[in-house]
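Troubleshooting log. The previous structure file for this entry was overwritten by mistake, so regenerating from the original sequence record. Sequence copied from the archived sheet and checked twice against the printout by T.R.
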Amino acid sequence: MGAHIEMSRTPGQDYPLGTTYQPQEPPLEMTTDQLCAVRVAAASVADSPGVHLFDDFAIVNGSSGQ
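Regenerated output below.
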């Protein structure tokens, strides 16, 4: 895990790629329910390359372009 999660406090909204200032970023710690949602979401997009935004996280399936 990193030092931050790149998501804003607005559900489904992440910070643009390359942003260095994220003043409304939620805490790194996730609840058990959020982690379970990550697992379900990852399975649901396993065959779909691209960026998939969810309320509390984003899944990048493939290259992020950096």
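The first strand starts at residue 50 and ends at 53. Archived copy saved in two places this time.
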